[in-house]
Design a protein that fits this description.
The structure is a homodimer. By secondary structure, chain A is α/β, with parallel strands linked by helices. Chain A has 4 domains: about 160 residues, Molybdenum Cofactor Biosythetic Enzyme, Chain A (3-Layer(aba) Sandwich), CATH 3.40.980; about 55 residues, Molybdopterin biosynthesis moea protein, domain 2; about 90 residues, Molybdopterin biosynthesis moea protein, domain 3 (Molybdopterin biosynthesis moeA protein, domain 3); about 80 residues, MoeA, C-terminal, domain IV (Beta-clip, Beta Barrel), CATH 2.40.340. Helix content of chain A is about 20%, strand content about 30%. Chain A is elongated. Chain A starts with 9 loop residues before the first helix and ends with a strand. Chains A and B meet through helix 2, strand 15, helix 3, helix 5 and helix 7 of A and helix 2, strand 15, helix 3, helix 5 and helix 7 of B.
């Protein structure tokens, strides 16, 4: 029953995991439309200027700016309308001094013109002449060639996770295939002699498996590809066999341990003997989730998560989800702050031990423009505390608790 | 060129759309593991108690609480160890007064016992006797039968969107199939004579299609099922034909309009003639995105989005995304506040007109525990303003701008 605990702080555990990750990830090419949420393995450079020509941002008249200097409502500048810049077409001809072309929003500026006067500031005198009531500066109402992105400029950096707007940026530069990190495969094993498949009716003493389902959902939601390996009894040989298969077929394996000390001992023994380099920590200074284990087996990561569903999910959130989403943990304190970006007033006192990072589930609500976080408390084995919450708050390691009325940092989910 | 604008506020536009949505959504049954992110069409009730038995939350000794009253380190209560409650098994026997059973975390409490003493507060005298150093109250260290959820209790309400932890709750009550709203199909049409497929090399005056890709990503990210109908030129008959097909094959259709007044006129004419009941608004008091149109054609929703990518995405965020994610808009001011839950200090003055809701993209960063929002400004046709931002902030309709140093509400993305 004795265990050699190697307890790290959360930051130390993260650093230890990162030290084993390969510096460069392998990429696969996918069509642009399938790349949403994936991370780029290499930076994308623009090949052409975007836009590839000077483009009007308004409906109006393309002019040589200096032809409009001094124009006013009382003394308009009069210009000859000598053409029309049609959208999607190359202008046939040029705007000579004293001339103007009608131009639609988005159309290419004809050569000779360097600005556009909005139609609102013009008056049609006859079909060939307009008066301009207001001067424009060169470049006014124009997006210049390459103003959005210029050829050779980096459009998106390596490691960037592709959002909807990034699909637009990439399509604008003609990128229809991108090299992204392949989706991380995550094997999920539940252990515990008391667990049964949710399809079955529990006999007295039995409990339906919960952690497999929570972790399956959490892996999917974080952009990983989950695979369930079912429920393994608290038996060394059986667990070892299933773990070996899961490690072979996945990049990361999660074992959510049995809840009793005996079951945890078996699970840890299996983790400890799974291969080299082996266990990098056993225990982290967080609550809930202290008995978490982390190991590296070859190039695969292995986590022994707590048996309590709420604890397992907190540890997943802080140790596994960032790897699936970003391939790394926040690198700086500034980045970390964006993990818990919502400030809310806590509605009751909460205790914490100095040197320990405490996480607790909260129900965030808004009242007269102010956000309040009500801790959803309850025994740690309960599931309904998880489903009643809509956020996770934390007390930093340096603090010994918070008092009602203090502001806490929250991540909504 | 004349248009009959029917300009609504954002709240009025949302209310108008909601008034046309069916009160009850149709559901489809899906396996539990495929239901992540879907919304329940009917509430889920628990059939059994969870847990189905009194369960120990610690490793220790199951006792009759009153046998421990008065126990202390100097005067322990001595009890006979008459059995062991194994995890996953029904205890064979009962704890009689003066007796105790060893019990593992998660195991079923034997009849007769009503509390558990943690192993830390016991001492083994011999193989049949232990001393107890601290009293326990009835129910201590026990999750009672039905304490998590009791039979007949509502586990999750209709309309609830399933999160990872909800999969755990549902598996705990043996629900392995759920009835959820089928995924909303969204057809996407780009219009504009200047647009070409991103695979092609643009001729002078041509621009690669951006909106199709941004909207495809935005629909996917919001839980909808996007389908592209390509680029349609600014031609009434062609647009009408493609729109009719898209309306037939989808629940919602998005047309992102040409950017010039002429192109917008064609698009609006097609929307206006698409069917009954027809256009419900044309223009909303928001910036960017004023020229947005909304129509109902039979039971389908049709949105005419602005041509500028950044404007189209803002309007998607505030009018379309909530429907895909939640089937509705936030119903109360309190719910609305959670749409923009992050408070950040704006780093420069921004103007706004009273009565108009202004949205602007920001780059949020953290500095010494405080979040700052730097507006990412630029001409409205640019795409890189979208990709440089990591958040959307807003100025409420009642305000005429914000000054540097004021706090604004932000949604991170």
């Amino acid at each position: 029953m004795t265990e050699l605990f190697k307890v790290l702080t959360l930051a130390e555990a993260r650093a230890a995991i990162m030290s084993y990750l390969p510096a460069k990830e392998t990429g696969v090419k996918v069509p642009l439309l399938e790349s949403l949420g994936c991370r780029l393995t290499v930076a994308v450079q623009a090949v052409d200027d975007v836009p590839a020509f000077n483009r009007s941002t308004v409906d109006g008249y393309a002019v040589t700016a200096k032809d409009t200097y001094g124009a006013s409502e009382s003394i308009p500048s009069y210009l000859d309308v000598s053409g029309e810049a049609l959208i999607g077409r190359e202008p046939a001809g040029r705007v000579e001094p004293g001339q103007t072309w009608y131009i639609a929003t988005g159309a290419m500026l004809p050569p000779g013109a360097d600005a556009v006067v909005m139609v609102e500031y013009t008056e049609e005198l006859d079909s060939r002449t307009i008066g301009i009531n207001r001067p424009v500066a060169p470049g006014e109402n124009v997006i210049r060639r390459g103003e959005d992105i210029s050829a050779g400029e980096m459009a998106l950096p390596a490691g960037h996770r592709i959002r909807p707007q990034d699909l637009g940026l990439l399509s604008s530069i003609g990128v229809t295939e991108v090299e992204v990190t392949r989706i991380t495969k995550v094997g999920i094993i539940s252990t515990g002699d008391e667990l049964i498949n949710p399809l079955e009716q529990p006999a007295p003493g039995e409990i339906r498996d919960i952690n497999s389902y929570i972790l399956y959902g959490a892996v999917s939601a974080s952009g990983g590809q989950p695979r369930l390996y079912g429920i393994v009894p608290d038996n060394y040989d059986q667990m070892r066999e299933v773990l070996a298969l899961a490690l072979e077929e996945n990049d990361i394996v999660l074992i959510s341990g049995g809840s009793s000390v005996g079951a945890r001992d078996v699970t840890f023994k299996v983790i400890n003997n799974a291969g080299k380099p082996g266990v990098i920590f056993h225990g982290i200074a967080v609550k809930p989730g202290k008995p978490t284990a982390g190991a590296v087996i070859g190039s695969k990561l292995l986590f022994g998560l707590p048996g309590h569903p709420a604890s397992a999910l907190v540890i997943f959130d802080v140790l596994v989800a960032p790897l699936l989403r970003d391939g790394a943990y926040p690198a700086t304190e500034e980045e970390s702050a964006l993990e818990f970006p919502v400030k809310a007033i806590i509605t009751r006192n909460l205790h914490s031990a100095a040197g320990r990072r405490d996480f607790f589930r909260v129900k965030v609500s808004s009242k007269e423009g102010q956000l309040f976080a009500e801790p959803v408390l309850g025994k740690s084995g309960l599931i309904n505390t998880m489903t009643k919450a809509n956020g996770l708050a934390h007390i930093p390691a340096g603090k010994e608790g918070v008092e009602a009325g203090e502001t806490v940092d929250v991540k909504l989910f």
